[in-house]
Design brief:
The protein is an all-beta fold and 185 residues long. Helix content is 0%, strand content 62%.
Length: 185
């Protein structure tokens, strides 16, 4: 993977992740360029220079595991690691700078839930402003909010205004992009 490389302004850059896969493989990979999700779930990404804006671009790979078999510090809970690169494009060249890897451990419980659901987390990367969106099964935004995630903590989310059914919680913030399904009884 490029690390502080300078490349020609034409062509493309190759980025990859070196992962240790659990057996069975339960990891999911999501790539984002300048805030837009890129198609595909491979552990590598070829970014053509035509995909880049002039100036500063940000590429982030999110690796998530939400199974009971996860190899996290919180067995039985989900975790997400992220790897980011800053890509600077000008008329003459493209410079790539590797950034820190983010670590965020979480659990959403109880599931199924009744009046509220709790997001318990360990944030290993300092304080982050997080936003949550709750989507109905048909893709409508039904609730949203935000909170500051510092260190270890919990955020209780009120579900009393939601009818019974299946929902998707989307949690986003700097270096964090998590989606978790839950049931409201």
């Amino acid at each position: 993977m490029p690390v502080n490389d300078t490349l020609q302004a034409t062509g493309s850059s190759f980025f990859s992740l070196k992962l240790i896969y659990p057996q069975p493989n339960t990891l999911t990979v999501k790539w984002e360029l300048n805030g837009s999700i890129l198609p595909g779930t491979d552990t590598f990404r070829n970014i053509s220079n035509s995909q880049l804006q002039m100036g500063i671009n940000k590429l982030t790979a999110y690796v998530t595991d939400t199974t009971l078999l996860s190899r996290s510090y919180w067995p039985g809970k989900g975790y997400q690691f992220s790897k980011s690169w800053t890509i600077e494009k000008n008329a003459a060249n493209v410079k790539v700078h590797q950034q820190l890897t983010g670590r965020f451990f979480y659990k959403l419980y109880p599931n199924p839930a009744q009046e509220q659901i709790t997001l318990s987390y360990e944030n290993r990367d300092g304080s982050k402003q997080l936003r949550y969106d709750i989507m109905s099964i048909d893709g409508r935004l039904v609730a949203s909010g935000g909170f500051e995630a510092t260190g270890d903590g919990e955020q209780v989310i009120n579900l009393s205004d939601l009818p019974s059914g299946a929902y998707l919680l989307k949690l986003t913030g700097k270096e964090i992009s998590v989606e978790e399904r839950f049931i409201r009884k």
